[in-house]
Every structure is written in C-alpha cells, then in structure tokens.
Design goal:
Layout (H helix, E strand, L loop, with lengths): L2 H4 L2 H26 L3 H14 L6 H15 L6 H16 L1
Helix pairs in contact: 2-3, 2-5, 3-4, 4-5
Length: about 100
C-alpha cells in the first residue's frame, strides 16, 4: 500500500472501526475462554490473524496465529495472556 492511502481519512476511519469492533468483541472472547469454548476463541484468533496486518497491526496477526496454534495444540495456558496482549494493543491504539 502506498503511504498516501494509509494516511487517507477513509483508511483511518476503517482502522478505527476495525479496532472498535475488536474491542467490543474482546469481552465475549474472554467469556468464551472462561467457559472453555475454545472453538469460539479460535475463531477470534483466526480473524485477527487474517486481518491485523491488513490494517497495519502485524502484532495482532502474530497474536492471532499464536492463539490458533495454542488451541490446535490443546495448550490453553497462554490464551488469557494472549488476549491481554490484544487488549493492551487495542487500548493503546484507541487512545
């Protein structure tokens, strides 16, 4: 993408909408984790894995990949921490 496009008001509005969507989704994902609904947590991870970089957040894509990999490996111990990282990124980006 060109810098002109990334600096455009339209793209900035899309980024904000994306971040707000993730931010409003995060409490439900945390609830799914508490309820051991790993398939739903996986869907969230898969979503951010596929979309984060498109919106300029490679770190979200990386975390999404880790969420998916951990669930595939049935290693749920780091999922809460990974979701905390997503929350931190969103808080900083939306500030």
């Amino acid at each position: 993408m060109t810098d002109d496009f990334m600096d455009s008001p339209e793209f900035k509005a899309l980024i904000k909408e994306y971040l707000e969507y993730l931010n409003t989704s995060l409490p439900g994902v945390r609830s799914n984790l508490s309820d051991k609904l790993y398939k739903d947590v996986y869907k969230f991870g898969h979503n951010i894995k596929g979309t984060g970089t498109s919106y300029g957040f490679e770190n979200l894509s990386d975390i999404g990949a880790k969420i998916c990999n951990n669930i595939k490996a049935e290693d749920y111990s780091q999922l809460g921490s990974l979701l905390d990282n997503v929350g931190d990124i969103l808080t900083e980006a939306l500030a």
